[in-house]
Amino acid sequence: MIITKKALPRRTFLRGAGATLALPLLDAMVPALSAMSRTAAAPVRRLAFSYIPNGAIMEQWTPAAAGTAFDLPPILASLEPHRDRLVVLSGLDSRPAEAAEGEGSGDHARASAVWLTGVHPRRTQGADVRGAKTIDQLAADELGRETQLRSLEVAAEDFTAVGGCDIGYSCSYVNTLSWRTATTPLPMQTDPRVVFERLFGEGLGAEERRRQLGRDRSILDAIVGEVGRLRTRLGAADAARVHEYLDSVRDVEQRVRKVEARVGEHIELPEMPVGVPELYDDHVKLMYDLQVLAFQTDVTRVSTFMLAREASTRTYSHIGVPDPHHAISHHGNAADKVAKHAKINTYHVSLFRYFLDRLRETPDGDGTLLDHSLLLYGGCISNGNLHLHTDLPVLLAGGAGGRLQGGRHAVCADGTPLTNLLLSILDKVDVHRDRLGDSTGRLAEI
Fold first, then answer.
1. Which of 209, 245, 262, 263 is 20–30 Å from 82 (CA)?
2. DSSP 389
3. Could you tell me if residue 25 is inside a domain?
4. What SS3 state is found at 302?
5. How confident is the model at residue 210, as a pLDDT?
6. Rounded distance between C-alpha atoms, residue 425 and residue 288, angstroms
7. In-domain check, residue 199
């Protein structure tokens, strides 16, 4: 590490007309002769939540052995390169997602509303929705004090429906995972261009974005002078790191532009958002890349991502599943439908693996973004055929800044609330609460 006598501020920005780029953590941000752990440039901890709907084929999700001597089952097999940063958890329940007396169905709405709260939502199809503040927002209250954005909420499926989306439950419960307060669900952004502009530039309306389609001008063009001046203050390692970071920004920007150009050719309705990819694979990876950039530049330290909404009818023909996801999840134990559901589960995990790859290859202080992040992946339904909210598909990834020991399958006692895990997650980023929803304590297994 190059030690300089005068450090760059941790929150250094490159600014130009319509563009603002925060810098990643650089050696030049570490004050002379100071240990990184005692400076404002010390790596921070990040939290990321990734949600999958409609349950999982648990027989192909759950490892057969507990502890460290386990094999990753078929659905999780693509995560093997990150085994040392994984904790697969079994035995966690979310009973508040079950129907209260006299309620009947509505399990999908309750699942997404309860996953990060542990609180049963009010059954209503009106505007009088009530859930609870989610842990991403509890974390954002603390971790977001020093960042440009408190948190980032994104999704890979259209979430504009209103009214009732599940039996007796408002669409508000399935349109988001994040609640700022018990009565304030937060919108989840599906357009990568809008997210990109929130992170790096001035927001533009859909019409202006359409006018910009085909323009061969990068947001980086606005800050070329700032970049040149910055490089005169940097050592070789920092200069290379800045170069790699700007290349990453340009790559994501170019991919967004390609998506917009492709989508623009097929726009039928003027209100259709420009920038939402036609291909699901492109969409999810772009959203994950944007989260990596947001963490790398410390624009935010908390992100929440819904890969698809509960009761999603999305089809996955590109992986050999042309059937609607929700219908397949009600497989009735038919072997062909079980196989298709498992294929969707496996595919979603492979996309999460892409996120882990990107985090692990991105330097951050004395480690990588994966080392300094804590990620929760999973859902609030286990058996989609029966709408079970017990023994949920849940795993943790990342190093949490040295606070999470990976390479394990942790089997929790029967009946352990998922909220015990949520409390422990908050603890690992120094956000402390005595209780959360139906919690009964911390999770000793992590």
1. 245
2. -
3. no
4. strand
5. 47
6. 21
7. no
Residue 176's identity, in one-letter code, is T
The answer to whether 22 and 148 are in contact (CB under 8 A) is yes
3-class DSSP state for residue 93?
Answer: strand
Terminal C-alpha separation, the chain: 32
H-run or E-run covering 238: helix 236-264
As a whole number of angstroms, the distance between CA 136 and CA 433 comes to: 13
Structural contact between residues 242 and 23, judged by C-beta atoms closer than 8 angstroms: yes
| Structural domain that includes position 421 | 46-190+303-446
% helix / strand / coil in the chain, to the nearest 5?
40, 15, 45
Q: Can you give the CATH number for the domain in which 366 is found?
A: 3.40.720
- Assess if residue 128 is contained within a domain: yes
* Identity of residue 194: V
User: Which tokens sit at 143?
Assistant: 């971790």
Alpha carbons 325 and 177: distance in angstroms, whole number:
19
List phi, psi (to 5°) of 398.
105, 180
The number of distinct structural domains making up the chain is: 1
Measuring CA to CA, which residue among 139, 137, 148 is closest to residue 199?
A: 148
Is 2 part of a structural domain of the chain?
no
Residue listed under structure tokens 């999305």: 314
Distant-in-sequence, close-in-space partners of 84: CB < 8 Å, separation ≥ 6? 406, 407
Return the closest-CA partner of residue 38 out of 47, 28, 30, 49: 30
Prediction pTM value: 0.82
Q: What is the mean pLDDT of each run of 10 residues along the chain (446 residues)?
A: 49 58 66 45 84 98 97 98 98 97 90 98 92 97 90 87 74 94 93 85 51 54 67 74 70 63 42 64 95 92 97 95 97 98 99 98 93 98 97 98 97 97 97 96 94
DSSP string over 171-190 = GGGTS-S-EEETTEEPP-B-
Q: 12 with 29: CB under 8 angstroms?
A: yes
Q: Pairing between strand 373-378 and 367-368?
A: unpaired
Give the list of residues 6+ apart from residue 128 with CB closer than 8 angstroms, or none. 122
Tell me 140's DSSP state: H
Sign, Cα dihedral of 273, 164, 117, 383: negative
Q: Which residue has the tokens 């609180």?
A: 119
Give the pLDDT score at 103. 86
